[in-house]
Amino acid sequence: MASRLEGEYSRLFEQEADRLWRALYAFSQDREIAADAVSEAFAQCIRRGDAVRSPARWVWRTAFRIAAGQLKERHRWGTLDREPSYEMPDPPGRVIAALRLLPHTQRAAVVLTHYAGYDARAVGEALGCSAATARVHASRGRKRLRQILERSDD
Length: 154
Prior knowledge:
This protein is mainly α. It folds into two domains: about 1-80, Rna Polymerase Sigma Factor, Chain: A; about 90-154, Arc Repressor Mutant, subunit A (Orthogonal Bundle). Helix 3 (about 55-75) crosses helix 6 (about 120-125), helix 5 runs antiparallel to helix 6 (about 120-125) and helix 5 crosses helix 7 (about 130-154). The protein has seven helices and no strands. The chain has helices spanning about 1-30, 30-50, 55-75, 95-100, 105-115, 120-125, 130-154. It is globular and about 55 Å long.
């Protein structure tokens, strides 16, 4: 039984981890938060085993909650000076740069809806709000994102 679950989790990780990391990076604008949230979400899912009915949905929802918690904690303590990374930062695309300007809830709703393909109910679950509120966050986020991108075109 354990080997069956290990195989399922390995396939799930191969299918979702990179895409999830990119979505979390777009949400958090931080490589470490994205990597930590992905790792922790998969670790928690594996620990829960058969108790998780839909592992892919559960991992996405949990990873976004973990990332949001880390962002909230960081904001509470302020930004700390970081040691320089050995990685060369990728130049952010216009959309990624514009996403930075959105509030966290709008950013998460836009990324989960348009990048991850989740419906309003699933986005609401991930954000801890109703489906209607998730739709409002996504709508306002799209509108604000459009304004930012149109302004940068000028």
